[in-house]
Specification:
By secondary structure, the chain is an alpha/beta fold. About 40% of the residues lie in helices and about 15% in strands. The strands form two sheets. The chain has a six-stranded parallel beta sheet, sandwiched between helices. Strands 7-6-8-9-10-12 form a six-stranded mixed beta sheet, with helices on both faces. Helix 1 crosses helix 2, helix 7 runs parallel beside helix 8 and helix 9 crosses helix 10. It starts with a helix and ends with a helix.
Length: about 350
C-alpha cells in the first residue's frame, strides 16, 4: 500500500500542513521536526516531488500556488492532503501562502506566483475584499488556471468549488422547524453582519421561515458564552441552538449543562461542519455534515482538468456546489412546552 501524506503526519505527530511545508522546504519549521518528517517519509518510501525545492524547479516540474485563509483549518488540510496524493507523482511542487483573512496578503501571494511562473493556482482567501481583476487577467493571459473554493470573492468569474451555503441553511431550518422549533439561536461568524456566504444564507433562511424570534450570536465574540447563557436563562428561552463549527460544540454543551438543562429534553443542539468526531459526543450529535474530502478532491480534479486543457470543461468558468448531508442523531427533539420548562425550573 502506497504511503500517504496523512500517514506521515500521523507518525510524526504533526498536521498535514506541517508535513507539506517540511517536504517542500518552507521556512518556519524546527530542524528536528523537519528531519523527523523527512526520515519518516523515506522509511515509508513516500514518493517525493521530482524537485524537492519549489524555489528552483527543473523543466520536468510545474509548480502549484496555494493561497489559504488558515493552514490550521480542516478544509485547507484536506486540500493539502489531496494535492499531496495526486500532484507529486505527476511532477508538481507547491508554493503555500497563508492570508489570515488579509486581502493584501492575497495580492502579494498572487504577484509572487506570477513571478514564479506557476502552472496553476488554488485560492481560498477568507476575506470580503474581491481578488482584483487585473491580477486574474494576468493569469488568464498566461493560460494559468485559477480555481477558487468556499468563500473567495473575485472581480472576475473564476472556476469555483464550494459548499452549497443556501442549501445548508435551508436544510438546517427545515429540519428544526419541522420538529416545531421557532425560537432558535444561530451561533456563527456574524462579526461583520450578514455578509455573503453562510451568515447571509442563514439570515435569508430565517427570514423565509418567518422566524422573528431568531437570535444571531457572533462566535468570535469573547462574551459569546455569557450571551448564550443569558438567552437560555431568559423567558421564553430559545429551544434550539445551531452551532456553525463542531469545535464550538463542547463549550456550548458545558453552558447548557451548567444551567441544569438537558440535551435534547430542554434544548436541542444542531451543528454544521465536518463529521469526523460528531459521533463521539454524548448525547450523539445531530449535524449538517460538510464533506471536506469530497470538496478537496473536486478542487484538485478541476485544477488538473484545466492544466491538461480537458476539452469537456469548455472555456466558461465552472461552478461546482457540494451539498451537505443531514445526520439525525440524539441532540435534536420536539421542543418542550413552556409549562414543562417552568415546572423543570421549579424542581431545580
Amino acid at each position: 500500500m502506497k504511503a500517504s501524506i496523512r500517514q506521515i503526519a500521523r507518525e510524526a505527530g504533526v498536521g498535514v500542513a506541517t508535513v507539506m511545508r517540511a517536504l517542500h522546504h518552507e521556512p518556519g519549521i524546527a530542524s528536528a521536526t523537519r528531519e523527523r518528517i523527512w526520515a519518516i517519509a523515506e522509511r515509508l518510501q513516500y514518493r517525493l516531488p521530482v524537485s524537492p525545492s519549489p524555489t528552483a524547479p527543473d523543466k520536468s516540474t510545474r509548480t502549484i500556488g496555494c493561497i489559504f485563509h488558515a493552514l490550521s483549518t480542516i478544509p485547507e488540510n484536506a486540500i493539502l492532503a489531496a494535492l499531496a496524493e495526486h500532484m507529486p507523482p505527476k511532477g508538481f511542487a507547491l508554493f503555500i501562502k497563508e492570508t489570515a483573512g488579509m486581502s493584501i496578503r492575497t495580492r502579494d501571494a498572487l504577484s509572487f506566483f506570477l513571478k514564479q511562473d506557476v502552472g496553476g493556482v488554488v485560492i481560498r482567501s477568507g476575506h470580503d475584499t474581491p481578488i482584483p481583476a487585473e491580477l486574474l487577467r494576468q493569469f488568464a493571459l498566461r493560460s494559468v488556471p485559477v480555481v477558487t473554493y468556499n468563500y473567495t470573492p473575485t472581480e472576475l468569474p473564476c472556476d469555483w468549488v464550494g459548499f452549497d451555503e443556501p442549501f445548508i441553511a435551508e436544510m438546517a431550518l427545515r429540519y428544526l422547524t419541522g420538529l416545531g422549533h421557532r425560537r432558535i439561536v444561530s451561533l456563527g461568524s456574524y462579526a461583520h453582519g450578514f455578509v455573503p456566504g453562510r451568515p447571509l444564507s442563514m439570515y435569508q433562511a430565517f427570514h423565509r421561515h418567518q422566524l422573528s424570534t431568531a437570535y444571531f450570536v457572533d462566535i468570535g465574540d469573547s462574551n459569546y458564552g455569557q450571551i448564550v447563557g443569558e438567552m437560555l436563562h431568559s423567558t421564553p428561552r430559545p429551544t434550539c441552538i445551531i452551532v456553525d463549527g463542531i469545535e464550538w460544540v463542547p463549550p456550548i454543551m458545558k453552558i447548557i449543562q451548567a444551567l441544569g438543562l438537558q440535551i435534547p429534553a430542554h434544548v436541542s443542539l444542531l451543528s454544521i461542519g465536518h463529521q469526523w468526531h460528531a459521533h463521539t459526543f454524548l448525547p450523539h450529535l445531530s449535524h449538517v455534515a460538510l464533506p471536506e474530502h469530497e470538496l478537496a478532491e473536486r478542487v484538485i480534479q478541476l485544477l488538473q482538468q484545466r492544466i491538461t486543457r480537458d476539452p469537456s470543461l469548455g472555456e466558461a468558468p465552472v461552478r461546482i456546489a457540494i451539498q451537505p448531508a443531514l445526520v439525525k442523531r440524539s441532540t435534536c427533539a420536539v421542543p418542550v412546552h413552556s409549562d414543562t420548562l417552568r415546572q423543570f425550573n421549579h424542581d431545580q
